[in-house]
Amino acid sequence: MTGKKGVSMSENIDTLIYTATFGVDAEKENARKSIYETALSMGIYPASIHDFYMARGKHQFEGFSVPAINVRMMSYNMARAIFQAANNLKVGALIFEIARSEIGYTDQRPAEFTTSILAAAIKENFVGPIFLQGDHYQFKLKKFLVEPQKEAQAIKDLIRESLEAHFYNIDIDASTLVDLTKTTISEQQKNNYEQTADLTVYIRNLEKELNLGPTVSVGGEIGEVGGKNSSPEELQAYLEGYQALLQAKGNFVGLSKVSVQTGTTHGGVVLPDGTLAKVKIDFDTLGIMSKECQTYGLGGAVQHGASTLPEEAFDNFPKKGTLEVHLATEFQNMTYDHPAFPKELKDKVHEYVKANCADEKKDGQTEEQFLYKTRKKAIGPFKKDCWDLSPEIQTEIRNKLVEKFTTLFNKLNVVNTKEIIAQVIHK
One GO molecular-function annotation for this sequence (predicted)? Predict the structure, then answer.
């Protein structure tokens, strides 16, 4: 595995990705370009999962749920762990994602995120399509109520930036705009499906403008995570309103999936001692809504906020036909709480959030609860400190993550999906 000038990319990639992340100006851009071109030359390429999800909607390739992993901290190291587990189990149905909020507090713009994932694939010799996803490109309700066009434009700008960075999978989250005070379910979902339809059209037009090639996989959402559980009736009202609007705008290609709320909370529910409460997911309703999605021509339903669930719960997702499962906080927890993670650095993280996130502490919240909920806000400020941890420490953390991803891939039944993905997704 060598670059154009005969340099061993396996040996050089650690230095190159560091420059691509922390370098300045031209050296950073050159490093990113080198990584991207090397990835393509090796058969590693960003792709859209749209066609595969359309096949799933027609009841092909059933029996597993695609893990969508939010890579927040030590991104190159964590992505290496994911690829190691994926290679060992021949996993191809796998998504790497980052949310609108995460882009901010982890200090990772889409181009940097893409480069980290591709560099990890190069390092681990993972060949094939890489699914990069913009997760929860979410409307902020307060801003939308004051200046709706400005808030919509902010998301459009992020979508353009993401597509230019080879994110060919975008999840639009206008579920924050659902108004439960309205009389009918359709009226409650109206702002949601209108904004999602508008952004879908925007994405389809960008596909042509940017000459992307693949049909971008677009996801919608009907229930804000941590809020009221979703119902099949809400899903129906949302999809009927959305599809009617999309057809009226020009019969554009629509959604490939819809995220629903069935009982989870991002990061889990933290008890006063800092441990996580057990959460009960309504798997039966999740299964019903996944089938309902397919009657509308979509791939199925998506479950958010699942990484902190007990391991025994994960077998239920493929059994109930869940299309995609989003996983994030547990991997952050495993990194922060790993015995090899330096205590001095962890103390600095805690000091930082106490000083800079004090206004986020809620009445009655213990310090353990507060630190658990806010320490993600330190990922960006301490990004370089984490990247600079010794190779030995990074290896220890990575090995533990490999174990976790191996378990999850088995539970979600995505083992041996490499060949299945290759049948549907082409460069």
Answer: aldehyde-lyase activity
